[in-house]
Amino acid sequence: MNSKQLDISQKQEPDYTTAKITHVGFIDPYAMEGIAILQSEDNKEFHMRAFSGEVARHIKSFLEGHRDVLPTIYNMIEQICEESEMLLVKVKVYESGTVLRANLYFTGKKDIVLRNYRASDAVALAAFYNIPILVRNTLLKDKMENLS
């Protein structure tokens, strides 16, 4: 695990904006590739795609309040947090080269950040825990309907 201690209460970086998931679906008719639309308070959007349909189904399920069937990897994170008395408090989504990555911020007995993980899993965890998703401003674009 790539982790680093930090001050969780640090100010939000100016190049990140809090966004909410407004839509989850699939790009293809076979539900193999997912899409999630993240929207900021000023109605800018980021269309996150190129992740598995399985993760999209989990995100949708978590948003609908279904938390009874937790995938093994997410369950493992939940158990580690419980045993360590830690909470996931926010995720940050950013580009790293041509792929999306995310940092996961935990607080508890010790504050840590896990860096450079799959953005889709981080967004799924954010949906599960109902925590803030921070998106790098360069990823947010005006809604298509606003462009004329």
Top keywords for this entry?
148 residues; alpha+beta; Bifunctional nuclease domain; eight-stranded mixed sheet; 3 helices; 24% helix; disordered N terminus
Strand content: 35-45%
In CATH, the architecture is Roll
- CATH level-1 class: Alpha Beta
Compressed to H and E, one letter per element, the order equals EEEEHHEEEHE
Report the major sheet: 8 strands, mixed
Could you name the ranges where pLDDT drops below 50 across 5 or more consecutive residues? Answer: 1-6
Helix content: 10-25%
Q: What Rg is obtained from the alpha carbons, in whole angstroms?
A: 15 Å
Structural class: alpha+beta
Strand order of the largest sheet: 1-7-6-5-8-2-3-4
The count of β-strands is: 8
CATH structural fold name = Bifunctional nuclease domain
On the 0 to 100 scale, the average pLDDT is 89
Query: What is the distance, rounded to the nearest whole angstrom, between the alpha carbons of the first and last residues?
Result: 46 Å
Total domains: 1
Shape, per Cα inertia axes: globular
- Name of the CATH homologous superfamily: Bifunctional nuclease domain
DSSP summary: helix tally: 3
